[in-house]
Design brief:
Layout (H helix, E strand, L loop, with lengths): L1 H11 L6 H8 L6 H16 L2 E11 L28 H13 L4 E6 L6 H17 L4 E5 L7 H7 L4 E3 L9 H4 L5 H13 L3 E3 L2 E3 L5 H14 L3 E6 L16 H14 L4 E4 L3 H4 L4 H4 L5 E3 L11 H10 L3 E2 L9 H8 L44
Parallel strand pairs: 1-2, 1-9, 1-10, 2-3, 3-4, 4-5, 6-7, 7-8, 8-9
Helix pairs in contact: 1-3, 2-9, 2-10, 3-10, 4-5, 5-6, 9-10
């Protein structure tokens, strides 16, 4: 396909596709799916070889969030039967992180539900970061605490944080349909604060919330403009007890096309398969490794993931290798730009074309398992 040849050439040059080209990837047929994966795989291997970076989530506090994000099991008014607990102590969080690191994770992501951290919360997380860094040489630590106030990103970096995650989730035009207690602009502001403080910015999306192809392209183009180092791609986990519990809009093929589109638009960044891969990609997960160079190991915030041992076997069986602590994730030009404070930037795309409607998948509620182990419990974690 001429389209795919063009996208590979652009990806190898870090040139932004047009919006029309990005939309065309999402509209490709199942008959062309392996060609799409192979093309995006060339771009992935050019920048990241066959390495897969492993990340491990530690949910520092679970549930009872005052925000009303429709996709979230921890939201205000959620009836999802999830674990609820207040802040883990630094030694508890460090112990939880150690399990993931022992399983091969290179980065620990410290997450706390809520609108954003108080200064006391930043102090608490700073102590946790220091505890993890003292006990695990070379570990990367990413914080995800919600909306940041002035000066908080700088304090987290001083404490040893390497990165900060705050996802855009969906397009600006539809954001108000998903969340009403804060704005899309609030999220952009927090990503910019993290970037300005010298933290590696991590920001991504959630697919499967009923959005159009145009919405997906909008949010990925917005991410390219923000220029994060890593882009997590979440696939909605439709928790019972949340407003989006009935949104089963994804198929494995749709998920692969979304990941391919993200890779073409963001060729040289860490594309991470995040929440929902087991629910929606299912047996097609190994193919997704040809598109993304990063995954979460083990469980998520409030749901269980694939067994850590199964993740490692999947990576090896697919012909990939786990990225070592001594290996640099990002291409040299991105690490050099970060060192000199260059925030990158991007180029404007072209026009818009129509989208093909998604074919809804059959609800697989049997695949949505609430987390009952690890942080906040007395049971061993999945790592």
């Amino acid at each position: 396909m001429d389209l795919l040849n063009t996208l590979v050439d652009k990806g190898l040059r870090r040139e932004l596709p047009t919006r029309e080209e990005a939309l065309a990837v999402l509209a490709t047929s199942d008959d062309d799916l392996l060609d799409v994966v192979a093309a995006a795989g060339k771009v992935r291997r050019h920048w990241f070889g066959r390495r897969v970076k492993l990340n491990y989530l530690v949910n520092l506090k679970s549930g009872l969030c005052p925000e009303d994000c429709s996709y979230c099991s921890q939201r205000l008014g959620s009836k999802a039967d999830i674990l609820k607990y207040t802040w883990l102590k630094p030694d508890e969080a460090s112990q939880a992180a150690a399990a993931g690191l022992a399983g091969g994770a290179k980065r620990v992501c410290l997450v706390a539900s809520g609108r954003g951290p108080t200064d006391r919360d930043v102090d608490r997380v700073s102590q946790t970061i220091k505890a993890i860094k003292e006990q695990n040489e070379g570990v990367e630590v990413c914080a995800c605490l919600g909306l940041l106030s002035d000066g908080q990103a700088e304090r987290l970096r001083e404490a040893g944080a390497d990165a900060y995650n705050h996802n855009l989730n969906t397009s600006e035009s539809t954001y108000g349909d998903i969340t009403t207690t804060h704005t899309y602009a609030d999220r952009v502001d927090t990503v910019q604060k993290a970037h300005a403080a010298g933290l590696s910015a991590c920001s991504g999306l959630i697919a499967g919330m009923g959005e159009s192809d145009e919405d997906l392209v909008d949010v990925v183009f917005s991410l390219r403009e923000l220029d994060p180092d890593s882009v997590p791609v979440n696939f909605l986990i439709p928790f019972e007890g949340t407003p989006l519990a009935k949104e089963w809009n994804l198929t494995p093929q749709r998920c692969l096309r979304i990941l391919a589109m993200v890779r073409f638009v963001c060729p040289d960044v860490e594309v991470r398969i995040a929440g929902g891969r087991e629910v929606h990609l299912r047996t097609m997960q190994p193919l997704a490794l040809h598109l993304a160079n990063s995954i979460f190991l083990g469980d998520y915030l409030t749901s269980e993931g694939q067994a850590g041992k199964a993740d490692l076997e999947m990576i090896a069986d697919a012909g990939f290798e786990v990225e070592g602590a001594d290996q640099v994730t990002l291409p040299e030009h991105r690490t050099e730009a970060a060192a000199c404070g260059d925030t990158g930037g991007c180029h404007e795309g072209g026009g818009v074309c129509g989208s093909a409607p998604a074919v809804a998948g059959e609800p697989r509620t049997d695949l949505v398992a609430v987390r009952r182990r690890g942080a906040g419990t007395d049971l061993a974690p999945n790592a």
